[in-house]
Amino acid sequence: xxxxxxxxxxxxxxxxxxxxxxxALRVMREADNSNTTAARLSHWLGQDPxxxxxxxxxxxxxxxxxxxxxxxxxxxxxxxxxxxxxxxxMVAATYPWLSxxxxxxxxxxxxxxxxxxxxxxxxxYVAQKSGRLNPDVAFTGGLLHDxxxxxxxxxxxxxxxxxxxxxxxxxxTFVEAERTVLGFDHGQVGGHLAxxxxxxxEMVDSARFHHEPDRAETPSLVADAVHVGNYLTMALGFGLxxxxxxYALCDSALLRLGLTPEDLDYVADELERExxxxxxxxxxxxx
Amino acid sequence: xxxxxVEVGEIKTMHGPGTFRCKSVGSCVVLIACDPIARVAGVAxxxxxxxxxxxxxxxxxxxxxxxxxxxxxxVEELGASRDEIRIALVGGAQIFSFRSGSGPDFGRRNGEAVxxxxxxxxxxxxxxxxxxxxxxxxxxxxxxxxxKVTRLAEGTSVLCTFGEKVAKAG
Lengths: 287, 170
Fold this sequence. Notes:
By secondary structure, chain A is mostly helical. In chain A, 66% of the residues lie in helices and 0% in strands.
């Protein structure tokens, strides 16, 4: 009888799996602490000069249209704000591995990055419109929602088209097809990876349940916001892979967020505007 | 030869020869207007049925209500004749969502809105590839007027060649 493969086996077998920057995580936690200061954030970012320099480059991108050059992280915090620098640190930390191709999912270079950044922005706007959760936490949840694909990519090699057809034939979502064929879906693998990285519980939940937020034992508004942000990103076609739109939208997530379908028109409209304004210029600056 | 990429919300037109490309189309509807005799075509990548804010920085191609008449205006300005304009629609994919019909249903609503706006101008699509759950990409080549649609995990097929009748008649 064959030995059952576990999620941990999948992760162990993935040789080029990224490691989340501990400095970026520390910066995220610092920024989410209401007692933090520009000096403390600057101190922590200073522990990783490469990350710090990417954050400065991003701060000086045309998107922010600053009249003078930002030379220090402390300046960036004062001018752009703590929340903005927090999110820039997460973007700078994740871009190097989110921008790589994932052939298993049919994603060319930069496509996962575009998809993830759009989902981050979408989740942030969903959270703002909802008013029931922190938009920055939703942003990070959106940015990291597909980390499970990084680990499952190799297992999907040459199987993805078959999985998509299987989903079509059986009326399954792509995560149902993944679970049937591979034993796990990319959300489960992403949740496991998020735990290994010691990410906050909201990030673990949003990685694990972003396609099926009703499966969470305790409903998570962050998973709900990421679910909707991801839905909008797929609808707009940003970074679509072989899985296409083979997912289900969960009505109860909208109810928990207090959003109507009409609200989603509004958020989609905003998301499209910001995506073009931010995603490409940010990508160019951080590359 | 020119190649124009048409992103979400954009309208692009040309007098052939040349190629239009739309990559990664989800629930948006790509509207193609082509006059093969005049060798003029245009493409609008429409993402929502109608504009609902008063912002003035929006491109008309984002919405069916503004994108459809604007595309027609632009191709006619380039020399297309209303009587010869042929129309095709591609996209409008949907998530398995809201079988109850209570949801946003972007794909279906976009398709319906574009068809409705075309009808106001006395036009109707003669070729379409709408709905489903797959992302699509497409190309339109001028002067042949050939539209090729690629569905990820399925492959590429020719939706139509608007210039065929012209070539045969000639």
